[in-house]
Write a structure and sequence with these properties.
Length: 335
């Protein structure tokens, strides 16, 4: 019996091998073609053969995955999609490509185009592809660069009353400076498109050119301050204080010491005719006969006798007001 058993084993193996070649196993394959999904059982060995058996027409207007020459396996899914044309511009060349990919990134994967981190792509990678869409990739490269640059000097004009109007005088000659610029040069598709400045190192400071210039309507105060004015009047000036003889009001009156503008009187406040000098105007009052200048003042008050080119100067005491009396002054309307 043992001898018979060992004699049957080679015979069984031979039958199994023969059956395998004569009756190859069927494989279940899913085919997705457009809106159609087919599940077929096939003994065909390649994707192309399975599609032909299922009467699925293949042309240059179709995209098949896996590839036609791929071997079929049980449970495989074959996708057949209609392709459409797009244009891809990259590395100085334009390529017309037929694809069925859903978005730009998938197209780049299809044609094995690699994007570097600084490269630019338009439209963006996740934009959906459309027929006749144009996709452009701009290669962006950078390189460091150092450059010595001249720093221009500034010209500063100072106005002075020491010169005649329009006359100029150079007080300090200007000279340019120098600096090192540490830059990053930016290239688009190999062409220089711009740069960024990373650091500046000053080698030599620029020296400004300073010019003094005489200007009309400039005056210098007793303290040396330079003032610009737009108009000047010669006026008759008087003086007043807050008391009854000047204002008709005694201390305790609700309007005692209050100006027409609603402010409180103080040194530097003057009364004017608003038809000549508007209230709120800044002034400079200069003596004509060689007396002391009243100086910078503010037109905040009015007076019954102050009409036309007359001005009333406030002093804190009646004695000061009487001592001033009546005299001609120049009233500068300041800018």
């Amino acid at each position: 019996m043992k001898e018979l058993k060992w004699m049957l084993i080679p015979l069984l193996i031979t039958m199994m091998v023969t059956t395998a070649f004569v009756h190859p196993d069927k494989r279940e394959v899913t085919i997705k073609a457009g809106e159609q999904t087919l599940v077929v059982e096939s003994r065909k060995h390649t994707v192309e053969e399975v599609l032909a058996e299922a009467n699925i027409q293949i042309s240059s207007q179709k995209q098949v995955s896996p590839a036609l020459e791929e071997k079929t396996t049980n449970g495989m899914t074959i996708k057949v999609k209609d392709v459409f044309p797009v244009t891809l511009e990259v590395d100085g060349e334009k390529h017309r490509i037929y694809t069925a990919e859903p978005h730009v990134k998938a197209l780049l994967d299809q044609v094995e185009v690699v994007l570097e981190k600084d490269d630019r792509i338009h439209p963006a990678p996740m934009n959906r592809l459309k027929p006749e869409m144009e996709i452009r990739i701009t290669r962006v490269n950078t390189e460091p660069d150092n450059d010595v640059e001249e720093v221009p000097y500034q010209t500063i004009t100072k106005y002075t009353a020491d010169l005649e109007p329009g006359e100029t005088r150079v007080v300090q000659e200007g000279s340019p400076g120098r600096q090192i610029l540490q830059k990053t040069l930016v290239y688009h598709d190999g062409t220089l498109s711009g740069f960024t400045v990373d650091e500046r190192h000053v080698l030599e400071e620029a020296q400004d050119k300073i010019i003094e210039k005489g200007k009309e309507n400039v005056l210098i105060t007793d303290s040396g301050e330079l003032l610009h004015y737009k108009k000047v009047y010669t006026m008759e000036a008087t003086a007043y204080d807050a008391g009854y003889h000047s204002t008709g009001k005694h201390p305790g009156h609700p309007q005692y010491g209050i100006t027409r503008s609603g402010t409180r009187v103080r040194p530097g406040v003057v009364a004017v005719d608003p038809n000549v000098i508007p209230l709120g105007t800044k002034l400079y009052v200069e003596s004509v006969n060689g007396g002391s200048n009243y100086g910078i003042s503010s037109a905040e008050d009015t007076g019954g006798a102050i009409k036309g080119k007359r001005i009333d100067l406030y002093y804190e005491s009646r004695s000061e007001a009487l001592r001033f009396g009546r005299q001609p002054v120049k009233v500068y309307v300041l800018e």
